[in-house]
């Protein structure tokens, strides 16, 4: 299908949160009370994070979501970094979504979400893109922090106009939702290894055994997932943390990209997955053709961006600019 406009535009229908970071020696255990050593409040939400990454990677991006009146500063911050927020709803009936994040000195985290305004269904644009007749875009990026019906409606609309569709199903939906999901409408699935195993279990598929190293195991998982009904035209990217990623591309080509080499310690992994997803979509947007070489180039840049991201605190604030990523790549 032809793209709907010449200049690529990514539409993100996603969440916008206030992230509240509690710095702790270790993640608190059941029955335990633990004092935090430091507290920070920052911009976050998977939709805001991913839209920020697309913008910082140098591509055009529009975010559709909702905040309460306590989130107006988040909208202004997104506008400042180049995200089109003209259709972000500011509502006085619900507070902005929250993420309560425990963060250890090693950069590991534990997150509790409160949906807040992210689950508003009015005005109608939040529920379905048909409410905006003039809405035009070439790429759609989705997560799973907004109402399920909205995610499916936006995916259906994007597929109908020939847009490239990318979904990062995090947090992982229920088995019933995954079984009913319109996989044939999806171009790219971006997941981690745990999510792949969760998907296979939800779809009633048996995960292959653990022979070989992490990359070989992930490749086998992707082949199994790709064999499920509806996945024939879906390309899959599986991130593997310190082992990089494995991607199953069109025509069954498999690509492995090693993890970025870090210059310093891991400080915060909260925004890394969203940074990767946004940079990857921006790479798809910049590519003239989606050859295996173009896709690999997009994946390499996304990995390097995520590598820079984890060495910084926060979510939106930790995402590097395109110039930083290019400088990093040119020095290798």
UniProtKB/TrEMBL annotation:
It comes from the Eukaryota. GO terms for biological process: D-ribose catabolic process. Substrate binds at residues 17-19, 45-49, 145, 274. Its cofactor is Mg(2+). K(+) binds at residues 268, 270, 309, 312, 314, 318. Its main location: cytoplasm. GO terms for molecular function: ATP binding; metal ion binding; ribokinase activity. It is an enzyme of class 2 (transferase). It holds the Pfam family PfkB. ATP binds at residues 192, 239-244, 273-274. The active site is at 274 (proton acceptor). Residues 12-320 form the Carbohydrate kinase PfkB domain. Its EC number is 2.7.1.15. Activated by a monovalent cation that binds near, but not in, the active site. The most likely occupant of the site in vivo is potassium. Ion binding induces a conformational change that may alter substrate affinity. Requires a divalent cation, most likely magnesium in vivo, as an electrophilic catalyst to aid phosphoryl group transfer. It is the chelate of the metal and the nucleotide that is the actual substrate. Homodimer. Catalyzes the phosphorylation of ribose at O-5 in a reaction requiring ATP and magnesium. The resulting D-ribose-5-phosphate can then be used either for sythesis of nucleotides, histidine, and tryptophan, or as a component of the pentose phosphate pathway. Belongs to the carbohydrate kinase PfkB family. Ribokinase subfamily. This is Ribokinase.
């Amino acid at each position: 299908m032809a793209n709907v406009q010449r200049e690529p535009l990514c539409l993100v229908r996603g969440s916008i949160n206030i992230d509240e970071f509690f710095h702790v020696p270790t993640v608190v255990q059941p029955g335990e009370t633990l004092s935090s050593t430091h507290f920070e409040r920052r911009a976050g939400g998977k939709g805001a994070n991913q839209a920020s990454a697309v913008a910082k990677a140098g591509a055009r991006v529009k975010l559709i979501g909702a905040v309460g009146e306590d989130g107006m500063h988040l909208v202004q911050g997104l506008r400042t970094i180049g995200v089109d927020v003209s259709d972000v709803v500011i509502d006085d009936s619900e507070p902005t979504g929250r993420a309560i994040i425990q963060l250890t000195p090693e950069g590991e985290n534990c997150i509790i979400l409160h949906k807040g305004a992210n689950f508003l269904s009015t005005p109608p644009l939040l529920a379905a893109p048909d409410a905006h007749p003039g809405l035009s875009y070439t790429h759609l990026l989705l997560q799973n922090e907004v109402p399920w019906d909205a995610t499916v409606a936006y995916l259906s609309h994007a597929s109908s106009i020939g847009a490239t569709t990318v979904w990062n199903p995090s947090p992982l939906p229920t088995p019933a939702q995954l079984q009913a999901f319109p996989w044939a409408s999806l171009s790219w699935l971006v997941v981690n290894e745990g999510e792949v195993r969760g998907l296979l279990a939800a779809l009633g598929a048996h995960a292959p055994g653990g022979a070989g190293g992490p990359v070989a195991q992930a490749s086998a998982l992707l082949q199994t997932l790709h064999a499920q009904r509806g996945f024939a035209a879906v390309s899959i990217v599986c991130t593997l943390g310190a082992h990089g990623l494995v991607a199953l591309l069109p025509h069954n080509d498999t690509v492995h990209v090693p993890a970025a080499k870090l210059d310093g310690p891991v400080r915060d992994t909260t925004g890394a997955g969203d940074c990767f997803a946004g940079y990857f979509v921006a790479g798809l947007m910049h590519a003239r053709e989606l050859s295996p070489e173009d896709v690999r180039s997009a994946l390499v840049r996304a990995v390097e961006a995520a590598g820079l991201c984890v060495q910084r605190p926060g979510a939106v604030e930790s995402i590097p600019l395109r110039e930083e990523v290019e400088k990093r790549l040119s020095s290798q």
